[in-house]
Amino acid sequence: MANDQPTVETDAAATEMSFFDHLEELRWRVVKALIGIVIGMIACWIVIDPLMQEILLRPVLAINESLAPGQRPINLQNLKPFGQVFLYMQVAIIGGIVLSIPNILYQLWAFIAPGLMPNERRHIKAIVVFSSVCFLAGIAFAYYVILPSALTFFAGFGTAEIENNIAINEYMNFIISVMLASGVVFELPMVSWFLSRLGILTPAFMRKYRRHAIVIIFILAALLTPGTDPVSQVLLAGPLVVLYELSIGVSAWANRKRERDLNT
Length: 264
Known about the structure:
The chain is mainly α. The chain has helices at 4-15, 19-46, 48-56, 58-65, 83-99, 101-112, 118-121, 124-156, 168-185, 188-197, 203-208, 210-224, 230-263, and strands at 74-77, 164-167.
């Protein structure tokens, strides 16, 4: 029995990581995340033509195929030498990041895991899955709701004497920024859960500052969709308000679970 305590102390000391150990762990997590991005980029490059034609160009093609009275077609133009080459590379890189989101989130949580309680570490896989689903749901919402509405508004706004000729890189920057911004804001319930589990956030606090949060939400919607029309900003802010209300319930659930864990 006398030898048990030193053994425990030795094991605890062995599991402690120095500053350089943390840097080494971070380096390998970043390397693994980058490997996942490269694999995703290769996968996107293999299907780059269908990705461009059937997915990224589909919103504007759908608008042009079903023009309502008063709407004008949206014509996409390449204005730079090798513009399409660089555009394809940009799409492959961003597509690789999106495809590797589960791996990126897993590497992030795996790096944070040593600082969590044992009962919190077992939720890492569920957290990664839920975070990935939230992000992809945000992208899907932007693609199927925000973009068609924004492009329809754009096609019908203004005078018929002005043609809608858009540089292809401006179009891609627009739809990609809107989709990524929507994916980020859909992570709000996950952020709420994490902060509540750490005891930083409470549902009472979120209810108290609901009005302030709504103002901040509309400001964020404007910042996350720079240069876009008010329609897309409102369409992004609306779901975010709903997500905020949902996050209050998530925070309440996480706080109850945290209290039970502390009492056991």
